[in-house]
Amino acid sequence: MSQQIALFLFQQGSPFVTFIPLLLVFVLFYFLIIVPQRKRQRAIDTMLDNLKSGDKVVTNGGIYGTIVSIRDDKRTMQLKISENPVVRVEVARTAISGMQDAPTDDKK
Q1: Model pTM?
Q2: Helix, strand or coil for residue 104?
């Protein structure tokens, strides 16, 4: 019976039936692309909001450093990237891509 109804709707050229594939593609696109991207962006925003002095971070350019200070406007921060001589770099908060991974002991 349902096959007969579907065949009837396709023969009649119902506008609803013609948009079903487009609607399904949009729903699939939403759940496979947009939802995971929002989740990743929330995690990045949380990480950036919780940065503090002493955190070891990596910039988008691949520079490893330790946060020395965060400016009052919270848009920029100062990273120490070398001990001897002391080298400090001013970077935008949005240039931080993540925290440094803890060293692993894989001595076998």
Answers
A1: 0.66
A2: coil
Stated as kind and residue range, the H or E segment containing 42 is helix 35-49
CB 40 within 8 A of CB 57: no
Residue in this structure with the two tokens 């759940």, named with its chain if needed: 31
CA atoms within 13 A on the CB side of 3: 0
User: Rounded mean pLDDT of 52-66?
Assistant: 93
**Could you give phi then psi for residue 56, rounded to 5 degrees?**
-95, 120
Start-to-end CA span in the chain (Å):
68
Q: Model confidence over 81-98: pLDDT tens digits?
A: 998 899 999 999 999 999
Q: State both tokens at 50.
A: 């919780």
Torsion angle in degrees (nearest 10) through CA of 8, 12, 14, 18: 80
* Vertex 91: Cα angle to 90 and 95 (nearest 5): 170
Name residues whose C-beta falls within 8 Å of residue 51's C-beta, 6 or more positions apart in sequence: 57, 67, 70, 77, 93, 96
